[in-house]
Design a protein that fits this description.
346 residues; Rossmann fold; 3 domains; 10 strands; 18% strand
Length: 346
């Protein structure tokens, strides 16, 4: 048996007094197509949002390949905290001594009609602060350093598990309601999905350096490969809004795949599709799995779920009521009751 790529461990999502997910646990092995099903309002999309960092679970953990995905505690973070502390400390000292500094630096060195003595003025800063008194120099600096460093660290804590961090770790998703950039071309929408993997920065882009041109050409070639994979290469330069609904679903999948995920979350990809499009979607999901990408699927269309899934988790009122193979779920009384009700069972 392959190792789990995703572990959802006792995840609970509370919104005030509303419990959308309660103590939900399951594991998805690498190479699987794993489906999460349930009636409307069962908490499926909320669970997807907790996995992808849109929400922070109230309790429980989501682990990718055994680790909780978080922004790492790196040297860059320590430098950012230290830099924030120093800037706020210096700003505090300068603010409290603003009047004395203005008189000593500007007023004392300004002569009408002559060039300002910048060197002499700057040399007056340190003596002026010393004259202000030790208590009014180091104490504001200390307080400012604590405030600045604490604020930077708090901001880091609040952004440890955000969607961009999750995406860079290897989890991509589509949405229940299509979220494409309608004014952009089909190819440009796929290029957007690659943004988090690009190595160039604003400086190389602004100056059009060879690195930028090389990466741009490579990205455009990869975008066309993904469009061919989903069958949209002939529409690459059409505006995304001009695609039929079923093709827009395919474009959203191509954009997610372009980010280079190890785990792809599909939120009701068959919604609004006709029978022919549904058959093509099932074939696409199987081909995605063949590329080595694991698929976690939310879907109401039982033909899709039973046709492509290796295992299925069933939610009802935010709780997991069953988990197993398609055959086991098909014959589970609790699942039948959740979808059909007790009267139909009788």
């Amino acid at each position: 048996m392959s190792a789990p790529i995703l572990e959802v461990d006792r995840v609970t999502m509370r919104f005030g007094g509303l419990v959308a997910n309660e103590d939900v646990s399951f594991r998805v092995n690498a190479g699987q197509v794993y489906a999460v099903i349930g009636p409307n309002g069962a908490g499926k999309t909320t669970l997807f949002n907790a996995i992808t960092g849109v929400y922070q679970p109230s309790t429980g953990e989501v682990r990718l390949e055994g680790s909780v995905v978080r922004k790492p505690l790196a040297v860059r973070l320590l430098l950012r905290v230290a830099g924030s502390a120093i800037m706020v400390a210096v700003g505090s000292v300068l603010a409290l001594n603003a009047v004395a500094l203005w008189k000593a630096v500007v007023v004392a060195n300004y002569v009408y009609g002559e060039p300002f003595l910048w060197g002499t003025a700057l040399a007056c800063v340190a003596p002026t602060l010393r004259e202000a008194g030790a208590g009014w120099t180091w104490l504001p600096a200390l307080i400012g350093a604590v405030i600045g460093g604490g604020a930077a660290y708090t901001l880091w804590l609040r952004t440890r598990r955000t969607p961009d961090v999750i995406a860079r770790a290897g989890i991509a998703r589509t949405f229940q309601n299509i979220r494409l950039f309608g004014e952009l071309s089909v190819r440009e929408n796929v290029l957007v999905g690659m943004h988090g993997r690009l190595a160039s920065n604003y400086l190389t882009d602004l100056l059009r350096l060879p690195r930028f041109r090389r990466e741009k050409a490579q990205s455009e070639a990869r975008a066309m490969e993904w469009l061919r994979f989903v069958g949209l290469d002939a529409r690459a330069f059409d505006a995304a809004r001009n695609l039929p609904y079923g093709l827009q679903r395919r474009l959203e999948i191509a954009r997610a795949l372009a980010s280079g995920p190890r785990l792809l979350l599909l939120d009701e990809p068959a919604a609004g599709m006709n029978p022919t499009e549904i058959v093509a979607l099932m074939d696409l999901i199987r081909r995605i799995r063949e590329t080595g990408v694991t698929v976690l699927l939310i879907e109401h269309h039982m033909r899709v779920v039973m046709g492509v899934s290796d295992r299925i988790c069933v939610l009802n009122f935010g709780k997991r009521i069953a988990e197993g193979t398609p055959d086991q779920i098909r014959n589970d009384p609790a699942c039948i009751e959740a979808y059909l009700g007790k009267e139909e069972l009788g």
